[in-house]
Write a structure and sequence with these properties.
Chain A is built from three helices and eight strands. The first copy, chain A, is an alpha+beta fold. In chain A, strands 1, 3, 4, 5, 6 and 8 form a six-stranded mixed beta sheet that branches. A two-stranded antiparallel ribbon of chain A has the order 2-7. At the A-B interface, helix 1 and strand 3 of A face helix 1 and strand 3 of B.
Amino acid sequence: MVPTSIRVIYGDTDQMGVVYYANYLRYFEAGRSEFLRARGLTYRDFEEAFRLRLPVAEAGVRYRLPARYDDLLTVETSLVQVRRASARFEYRVVRPDGAALATGHTVHACVDLDGRVHRMPRDLLDRLADGEPPTPGPTQE
Amino acid sequence: MVPTSIRVIYGDTDQMGVVYYANYLRYFEAGRSEFLRARGLTYRDFEEAFRLRLPVAEAGVRYRLPARYDDLLTVETSLVQVRRASARFEYRVVRPDGAALATGHTVHACVDLDGRVHRMPRDLLDRLADGEPPTPGPTQE
Amino acid sequence: MVPTSIRVIYGDTDQMGVVYYANYLRYFEAGRSEFLRARGLTYRDFEEAFRLRLPVAEAGVRYRLPARYDDLLTVETSLVQVRRASARFEYRVVRPDGAALATGHTVHACVDLDGRVHRMPRDLLDRLADGEPPTPGPTQE
Amino acid sequence: MVPTSIRVIYGDTDQMGVVYYANYLRYFEAGRSEFLRARGLTYRDFEEAFRLRLPVAEAGVRYRLPARYDDLLTVETSLVQVRRASARFEYRVVRPDGAALATGHTVHACVDLDGRVHRMPRDLLDRLADGEPPTPGPTQE
């Protein structure tokens, strides 16, 4: 698990006085990006070095407690499954007092720059797995 | 089903040249709002007249094909289930050529202005159901 | 002047109960895009046909009255000046009752796809000017 | 001057491959919020303790160089003028190599919770000025 800090700005809130629901997907992205950085690669490298992309195929969020303006949130990001050509991340958004405000997941396809499904490179898999073994999916080789 | 038109602006896209994944939840909200308006009530009325809110408890999206800058999208919004104190909407985002770019859902709790779970008023249920019978949930009375 | 309708969604508001200040720049962009469409060209065409871009060099907004959730706003967009390699748009965001909520402007450079300043093509100038003569700038030829 | 770090996420970029122009106003807000925190008060406190708000009356940005995905930006925020019932902040967004990508300003009115213009409290002025004397405006008393 890799933690990422997020300070809620006014622009993240809505008139209900809480963080607007779509913004959790932005927080998840920030968490995912820091997860990759903690594994020694940036998503920018990913595109440039591997000539691959990881577009989101699926996303889901469960909203448990509202986040509010100026809250210092932590997005806890885990890579929970890597398959031949996809990966699944899970996220918890927690407050300093430990309360889990939201949980969610994203599933990413691995595609080349022309958008065709592409097998995850072994080198990438090794680096992603570094320090925290993701669950191998049944179709991973 | 209630259709809502959305014109994709530059600010909705990301550097992959497609609509950023979080923005579909904004599109869903626009669809939901127009759904309520087509039923003769606005979400603003909902808060003011019924003294209730419908915060999102859960959201999910499946991304099938990318939406691009200047696309004229239609969000097709349906209310598929109403329970005693919750409601589930489903969404399809389609292009003029009929291609479904994304599908998704949101589940909303019905709460009062203090955030306590509150039974959906009968009057509200009648208006929501107008023209398109939602599937009654097992706990609805 | 070209009018564009914008329905304020929840995601546009902040906890002060009004539209968040950055979102007016999104509204301006929607207005600018419809302005070009009304002149028979889309910004997408602009990039593809002319191989040019119009990045924003400067933007300003004066906030006069707050816009609120579910307001049906009109962005009134005018092209007020075209120079050799730049253009200035002005915007008014008005409510149905005619109240001007915000006014603003953007200045755009004309650059080629490598980012170098490029003279506005005559054909483009003619189309932009169609129906509403912008003020020629002193350096325009 | 108070510095604030911002990591550019994918959701901040647009299809031109650079940060979308409206997002600089979000960055400015983050900078302003950290500026207040560095002065020992949060904007949340401001609303709760002083029963006042600082809505934006005017904003402007000059875009000099594009910010890109994953850039680690610094927003340098200064309070440059405090008048009887308004304040002006200025911002520079810089890259680690020192390049100034954008500069801008915001002017804020001081209003009470009913939206009426309200004189800046002396206690607030003292705290804002702490460590960095803002230029007193001509109408300040």
